[in-house]
Amino acid sequence: MTEHTVSQQASCRVVAVQDDLVTIESLAHQPLIKNEVIYILPSRQAQDGAAGELRQEWLKAEVLRINGKRADAQVYESTSGVGVGDAVVQSGEMLSAELGPGLLGMVYDGLQNPLQQLASDFGTFLPRGVDIKALDQEKKWLFKPQARAGDTVVAAQVLGTVAEGRFSHKIMAPFDLNGRWQLDWIQQGNVRVQDTVAQLSDIHGNQRDIRLMQRWPIRKPVSRALIERGQAQRQYPQQPLATTMRLVDTFFPIAKGGTGCIPGPFGAGKTVLQGLISRYSDVDIVIVVACGERAGEVVETIQEFPNMADPKTGGTLMDRTIIICNTSSMPVAAREASIYMGITLAEYYQSMGFDVLLIADSTSRWAQAMRETSGRLEEIPGEEAFPAYLDSAIKNVYERAGVLQRQDDHQPGSDYCGTLTMIGTVSPAGGNFEEPVTQSTLGTVKTFLGLSADRAYKRFYPAVDPLLSWSRYLQQLKPWFEKNLEAGWTDRVSRLRELLHQGDEINRMMQVTGEEGVSRDDFIVSQKATLLDMVYLQQDAFDDVDVSVPMARQQALLHLLERVIDHQPGGESKTELRSFYTQLTGLLKNLNYSVDNSPEYQRLLTEIEGRLV
């Protein structure tokens, strides 16, 4: 709904206003629908530009609760100037996303308004009550049909493709198509997203035009609709998401199609960590949802991604990225919707068979938006005033991740899988992991990368606490590791994790008794644990070699470290032992900075092996 006319018949009126919560009353027989999008028309018109031209504002809102002829709706923009008696127009639609070619490389707000287009049309300060199409309406795409006239068509069936950058973007029959339809005609050519490229009809004579774009309600999972219509099946995640980060890939893996969370206090490195995961992970498409982050951090992301080289393609990272931006300074209501918008776009590309990574930053502020809305609705609060349904809301979001298997409609027996991996960052106040949002998230996800302020203060990166973090995927993906890496991989990793715990216990003891209070063997265990931490768990984000470590190199380094750990050093004094392991740590860290099989790499490897004789 981009062009509105005030002459449209208003079906409701405003009867109360409280911050961004508005109570409306129906004036007609048109029913009020939960989650329906409505438009509030303030009687006081806005003045735009130096000439002071008057413009009717259309403030978008969503119905939250219905009570007879009245309903409470949350307004996605400031309600300044909205008064009792103002007209309300119902759209008859749920809050929906526009799905089609042209999404990649875009920066949207939580309602899928293109921010760059808004800034171009209206300047730095975005006006209220403006509605712009999410997809470019004038750009033309070369549509290549894959179906033929006379074919039987069902929901989500691939009808043709267009080239979106390096991707083959599949144009599918509408996801809400019920039953079987016949393809009357289909045409090839350069078309816009709103142009009709095909027409369907059913046995009752109903017809439906097919365009390059379609709309889908963001609070309803695309994957669930496809499964219900028999067009897809959910599969168990069977392989890890390669992030090229040693600590994640080896010790705390995340499955492709799995879930993970990164909680941590301010300044612990969440933004840098999620940026590197976005850049180097083995996925096709990245969607970053900044749902409530500070504006400065979001601006940094928007400025860096277009200039950041994509290691997969050689282009820029923005070529395969979508950013949903709803900062802490933007309306709270839109912040709550932004995460659903991002997931819907991710599911759309997942349904085409792509591997999609969704990073939500941060779900704490998304939950705070729900808390504010719940408080204004006067709902019974739960722990720390969060809504009582916080736990189920978080589970519903993460459960939309997964592996979706589909069959190629044009090649029977040929299946393809799309994955949606979701990683949410959590910002608990004061780094308190016991607060409700963190606890609900930990009860849902299968990988927990807990950031530590203490490790960040020591300049450790990533500042993930290996004693606090865990991954349920390490055992779940054991068959993949055994087949693709080597037998006994997960058992060896578990052994090294046990070494870290033993070293921590001994270090705590030494803080009380001093080095003299522990035996030589215990001191050696402590030194080995420190070496493992410094050499393998730490990674230099600013070094061209160490910033991204393929799995084969991780495997080789782990073998070398196991030789170091199994080696029994000479020398009796703790000073000699400390010197031995300190020198080894320096050599191994330099090895991490050396290019594979370079002369420097071979020299360091020879020197390390010479010390293990």
What does this structure look like?
Helices cover 32% and strands 24% of the residues. The strands form seven sheets. Strands 10, 20, 21, 22, 23, 24, 25 and 26 form an eight-stranded mixed β-sheet that branches. A six-stranded antiparallel β-barrel has the order 1-2-7-6-3-8. Helix 6 packs across helix 7, helix 14 runs parallel beside helix 16 and helix 16 packs antiparallel against helix 17. The termini are far apart.
What is this structure, in a nutshell?
With 613 residues, this protein is an alpha+beta fold. It catalyses: ATP + H2O + 4 H(+)(in) = ADP + phosphate + 5 H(+)(out).
* Estimated radius of gyration: 28 Å
Whole-number mean pLDDT: 90
Query: Which structural class do the helices and strands define?
Result: alpha+beta
Report the total helices. 17
Strand content of the residues, in percent?
A: 15-25%
**In this structure, how is the largest beta sheet organized?**
8 strands, mixed
Helix content: 25-40%
The coarse overall form would be: globular
- Give the end-to-end Cα distance, rounded to a whole number of Å: 75 Å
Q: What's the number of extended β-strand segments?
A: 28
Which stretches of 5+ consecutive residues score pLDDT under 50? Answer: none
Function: Produces ATP from ADP in the presence of a proton gradient across the membrane. The V-type alpha chain is a catalytic subunit.
Domain ATPsynthase alpha/beta subunit barrel-sandwich: 133-219
Family: Belongs to the ATPase alpha/beta chains family. T3SS ATPase subfamily.
Domain ATP synthase A/B type C-terminal: 479-561
